[in-house]
């Protein structure tokens, strides 16, 4: 799976010629690497039966998109937190090691990439290059572990466990599950809401953890697609 994922990402993102590279292109290269790792991990969790393309879309629209809209992200600060995710998950850290550090490295890459893109858009190229360089540096660290030509290492397997644990405790994931129950009820009683937007607004009022109407609308579309595919299968 890892080799196939590598090939697919390489086909999507092609490194530009050296004389045309910018902080944004270098940040984007590191970002695609982080996406590759993200897709591999979440597909291993089997939390939801989605395609690789769906997970890539989720990475850029939800994860990267949320960071891009957040003015307070700080890659330097994120670096200092590497090795602490086990504390957030209430998991013991054996022998002083940080078993979920790969996830935090991925997070560092995304934050530095966002900061590089913002800095270039503000015409601060020196700052942009410094962030892009850091994004590439941390992608090199993640990539060295991710591209091992062997069965998933202990660190990678722990990253998968961490995702499962975090999803289990994530209020938004819990709310999403409850929203889906409401959506199923809506399908049985179509007159409850006129459209997805009305449904999404109501869900945001019911669940304070949710703050993005368009995301809820997209969930509805995904559930519709899944339901339709199951129906066609019969």
Short synopsis of the structure:
This protein has 234 residues and is mainly α. The chain has helices at residues 2-12, 23-45, 52-68, 75-80, 85-88, 101-121, 125-146, 154-169, 171-188, 196-206, 213-233.
What does this protein look like?
With 234 residues, the protein is mainly alpha-helical. The chain has 2 domains: 2-167, no CATH class; 171-233, no CATH class. 73% of the residues lie in helices and 0% in strands. The chain has helices spanning 2-12, 23-45, 52-68, 75-80, 85-88, 101-121, 125-146, 154-169, 171-188, 196-206, 213-233. Residues 1-12 and 88-99 have low confidence and may be disordered.
Give me the number of helical elements: 11
Q: What is the end-to-end distance? A: 29 Å
Structural class based on helices, strands and sheet pairing: mainly alpha
Q: Round the mean pLDDT to the nearest integer and report it.
A: 75
How many separate domains? 2
List the topology elements.
Blueprint: H1 2-12, H2 23-45, H3 52-68, H4 75-80, H5 85-88, H6 101-121, H7 125-146, H8 154-169, H9 171-188, H10 196-206, H11 213-233
Helix pairs in contact: 1-2, 2-3, 2-6, 2-7, 2-8, 6-7, 9-11, 10-11
């Amino acid at each position: 799976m890892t080799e196939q994922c590598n090939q697919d990402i390489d086909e999507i993102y092609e490194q530009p010629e050296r004389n045309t590279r910018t902080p944004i292109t270098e940040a984007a290269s590191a970002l695609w690497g982080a996406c590759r790792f993200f897709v591999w991990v979440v597909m291993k969790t089997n939390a939801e039966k989605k395609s690789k393309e769906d997970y890539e879309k989720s990475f850029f629209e939800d994860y990267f998109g949320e960071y891009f809209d957040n003015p307070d992200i700080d890659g330097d600060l994120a670096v200092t937190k590497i090795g602490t995710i086990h504390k957030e998950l209430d998991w013991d850290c054996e022998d002083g090691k940080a078993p979920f550090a790969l996830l935090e490295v991925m997070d560092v890459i995304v934050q530095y990439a966002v900061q590089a893109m913002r800095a270039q858009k503000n015409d601060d190229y020196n700052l942009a290059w410094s962030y892009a360089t850091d994004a590439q540096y941390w992608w090199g660290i993640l990539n060295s572990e991710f591209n091992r030509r062997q069965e998933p290492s202990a660190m990678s397997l722990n990253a998968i466990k961490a995702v499962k644990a975090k999803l289990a405790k994530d209020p938004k994931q819990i709310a999403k599950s409850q929203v889906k129950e409401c959506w199923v009820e809506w399908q049985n009683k179509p007159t409850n809401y006129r459209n997805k937007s009305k449904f999404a607004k109501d869900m945001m009022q019911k669940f304070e953890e949710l703050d993005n109407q368009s995301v809820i609308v997209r969930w509805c579309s995904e559930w519709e697609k899944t339901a339709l595919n199951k129906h066609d299968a019969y």
